[in-house]
Design brief:
single chain, 349 residues, alpha+beta, Lysozyme-like, six-stranded mixed beta sheet, five-stranded antiparallel beta sheet, 8 helices, 21% helix, 27% strand, elongated
Length: 349
């Protein structure tokens, strides 16, 4: 599988498919010089009236519209198509210019086959001269074969022979699993160490080990990569069988103006693990987590977590960089360290 980074920048520029079955994956050019992310930002403004499911450039894939919804790409063909735009590309490109981004052509082919497998349509590549059918083509197919609109991208010099070979290489193999797809979108994981996938104790989920982390999958949460720095706390809390459960999102890097480098945070079914650079990871959840969020998370007056929750009398407390949050049934108090006595931290309006 090709190595690429897949980023979610899901926005409001979409419509329901109204029950239509997806039958085609279509390629587009931008006619501009954007990156995958800058083009996604433009598409996420509904006033611009255009969107694609994916933008792609330099092995970065940005998901703008979920495939379950229709993007605003090809007029009345929107309900039955999935659309990808090569950011920074132009109809006027020569064959040599297209071949210079062969890595992105291969990624686009992989995404097209992945989509075809997901929705059950053909992986046949429909190139000029076009015919009406299920498969993978471009915007000009919509114009010439379907008689909708007037666009001619991806242009006359697109290397259909090279692209079709990439599609064939992916279509002829075993359909990748959700863990395979997440690993392909997360090259920072490094080399795979697990031969295949291992079942979790509940008999439902699966996981695989990599050089710099793990990928966990469950039907309720999908597949998410957990870096080694977060895995330390995850393992301490008994992995997915413990109170954290399965990961529900990819990890985020958090800038730390008071530290030596970025921190990490990752959301699980049972809360969030925060790990400041060069510090242990801590679990934040429940009422204390909500109160910390109301105070501004790690950038607020309490700063970063400095412990897990600790039992105290009839309740619990959790230490933070600049104070503590106490919880007892029916009451929660946040205190900022300021001498003796500590100062209660007022709840934001």
């Amino acid at each position: 599988m090709p190595q690429f980074t897949e980023i979610d920048r899901l926005g409001p520029s979409h419509s329901p498919r109204e029950g239509a079955r997806v039958t085609n994956f279509l390629l587009h050019t931008q006619e501009g010089n954007g990156t995958a992310e800058s083009l996604a930002a433009y598409l996420n403004n509904p006033a611009n009236g255009v969107s694609y499911h994916y933008t792609l450039r330099d092995a970065v894939v940005v998901r703008v519209v979920p495939e379950e919804l229709a993007a605003w790409s090809v007029l009345s063909a929107n309900p039955f198509t999935v659309n990808l735009c090569f950011a920074g590309s132009r109809v006027a490109w020569s064959r040599q210019q297209w071949l210079a981004i062969d890595g992105d052509l291969r990624i686009a082919a992989f995404l097209a086959v992945r989509s075809a497998h997901r929705h059950g349509y053909s992986t046949e590549v429909i190139e000029p001269d076009y015919y009406v059918g299920e498969g993978i083509s471009d915007h000009k197919y919509v114009t010439r074969a379907l008689g909708i609109g007037s666009h001619t991208d991806v242009g006359p010099n697109f290397p259909w022979d090279v692209f079709a070979a990439h599609v064939a290489s992916f279509a002829g193999g075993t359909e990748p699993t959700a863990i395979d797809l997440r690993a392909a979108a997360s090259p920072w994981l490094g080399a795979r160490r697990t031969d295949g996938e291992l079942s979790t104790p509940d008999g439902v989920g699966r996981f695989a080990e990599f050089e710099h982390g793990y990928v966990y999958w469950h039907p309720d949460t999908d597949a998410h990569a957990v870096p080694t720095a977060i895995m330390d706390k995850y393992a301490e809390l008994d992995w997915e069988t413990g109170p954290l459960g399965y990961p529900t999102a990819e990890h985020s890097e958090l800038p730390d103006p008071r530290g030596s480098g970025p921190g990490l945070a990752q959301t699980f079914q049972g809360g969030i693990v925060y790990r400041r650079a060069a510090q242990p990871g801590y679990w934040v959840h429940g009422a204390i987590g909500a109160r910390w969020a109301a105070a501004g998370y790690e950038n607020g007056e309490l700063g970063w977590p400095a412990s897990d929750e600790t039992a105290h009398d009839d309740g619990v407390y959790q230490s933070f960089e600049f104070g503590r949050i106490y919880w007892v049934p029916e009451q929660i108090v946040a205190l900022r360290n300021s001498g003796d006595p500590d100062t209660p931290l007022p709840r934001p309006a």
